[in-house]
């Protein structure tokens, strides 16, 4: 089924990558090349997100915004969770000390300003809002739809797809386990198994009539064709855009993606407390035996350490998010990469 609300020339989407990789320039360049542009709302302040929407709209026309759905269960409320967190803080204390940092062993919580970001998008609607990490209250979904936004839920299993369909969303983003960055799994404790995104798309297509966007493990034009043949109306690309000229990817991250020193990706919770795929480096190898499920508390715990590591060119301690297709990422304008991906359509 086609997705009329994803009105772009090409069946490609510039995936929203939180943490700085997705910029207005990247999204604008993607739109000019015929792909559908998204902005990443995760981790941003409301004023910053509002400014990006205002800057992108005249350059791109229709656009999407991605939001992180807060986990209602939370983390750090129980004594056992606080003890696990304190143990992990002690585990990585020497890493932080190398940058003169002392870690706070008390878990920090937040909901990524969900209510305020929702209010922003109700007051100043965009054409599409995508959701990651779960489904919010039904009233939030319907409020966005009444404001004029199509709502897409990101799913990683058939069960999540059924639940999202029942919640009344307009479409699904089907994320395969080979995607870079955070897994969108609704249960952060879930063990993410390997598998082809095309197989997951076909499985989800069997249980819903909603339009599907496929993402995860895209490494070239053949992968795009395979995902569309499996039932996707469009393909979202993230990792392959990380080295493009317009991306906000740090120099340290860019160099690591092209370096022969890194030979594989892996799913890990060591940096944020949620499963996420990145290049296997020393920090992962040293601490994966002790990693805990505790998002966003672990994200806040390691945030300044990762910031310092990135600035220092320390790829050994930086989260180097990357999907399995990272070797195909090119250092060129985003339009070049998108044209290459569309060349087989």
From TrEMBL:
Cross-referenced Pfam families: NMO
Coiled-coil portions: none
Cofactor(s) essential for the protein: FMN
Keywords: Detoxification, Dioxygenase, Flavoprotein, FMN, Monooxygenase, Oxidoreductase
Protein name according to UniProt: Propionate 3-nitronate monooxygenase
Family membership: Belongs to the nitronate monooxygenase family. NMO class I subfamily.
Alphabetical GO biological process terms: 'de novo' pyrimidine nucleobase biosynthetic process; response to toxic substance
InterPro entries linked: Aldolase_TIM, Dihydroorotate_DH_CS, NMO
GO MF term list: dioxygenase activity; nitronate monooxygenase activity; oxidoreductase activity, acting on the CH-CH group of donors
Domain of life: Bacteria
Record has Ribosomal protein as a keyword: no
Reaction(s) this enzyme catalyzes, per UniProt: 3 propionate 3-nitronate + 3 O2 + H2O = 3 3-oxopropanoate + 2 nitrate + nitrite + H2O2 + 3 H(+)
PANTHER family: NITRONATE MONOOXYGENASE-RELATED (PTHR42747)
């Amino acid at each position: 089924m086609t997705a009329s609300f994803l009105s772009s020339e090409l069946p490609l989407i510039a995936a929203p990558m939180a943490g700085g990789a997705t910029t207005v320039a990247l999204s604008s360049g993607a739109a000019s090349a015929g792909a559908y542009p998204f902005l990443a709302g995760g981790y941003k302040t409301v004023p910053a997100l509002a400014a990006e929407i205002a800057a992108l709209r005249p350059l791109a026309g229709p656009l999407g915004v991605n939001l992180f759905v807060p986990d209602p269960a939370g983390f750090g409320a129980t004594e056992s969770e606080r003890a696990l967190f304190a143990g992990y803080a002690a585990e990585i204390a020497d890493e932080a000390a190398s940058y003169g940092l002392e870690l706070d062993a008390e878990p920090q919580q937040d909901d990524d300003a969900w209510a305020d970001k929702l209010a922003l998008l109700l007051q100043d609607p965009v054409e599409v809002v995508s959701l990651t990490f779960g489904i919010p209250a039904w009233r939030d979904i319907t409020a966005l739809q009444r404001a004029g936004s199509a709502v897409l839920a990101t799913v990683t299993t058939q069960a999540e797809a059924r639940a999202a369909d029942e919640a009344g969303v307009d479409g699904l983003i089907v994320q395969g386990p080979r995607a870079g960055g955070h897994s969108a799994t609704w249960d952060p404790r879930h063990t993410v198994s390997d598998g082809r995104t095309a197989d997951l798309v076909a499985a989800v297509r069997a249980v819903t009539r909603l339009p599907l966007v496929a993402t995860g493990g895209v490494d070239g034009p053949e992968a795009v064709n395979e995902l569309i043949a499996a039932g996707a109306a469009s393909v979202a690309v993230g990792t392959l855009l990380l080295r493009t000229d317009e991306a906000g990817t740090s120099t340290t991250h860019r160099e690591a993606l092209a370096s022969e020193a890194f030979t594989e990706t892996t799913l890990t919770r060591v940096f944020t407390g949620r499963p996420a795929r990145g290049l296997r480096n020393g920090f992962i190898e040293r601490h994966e035996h002790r990693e805990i499920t505790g998002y966003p508390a672990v994200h806040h715990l390691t945030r300044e350490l990762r910031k310092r590591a990135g600035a220092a060119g320390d790829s050994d301690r930086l989260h180097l998010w990357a999907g399995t297709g990272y070797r195909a990422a090119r250092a060129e304008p985003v339009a070049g990469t998108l044209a290459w991906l569309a060349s087989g359509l």
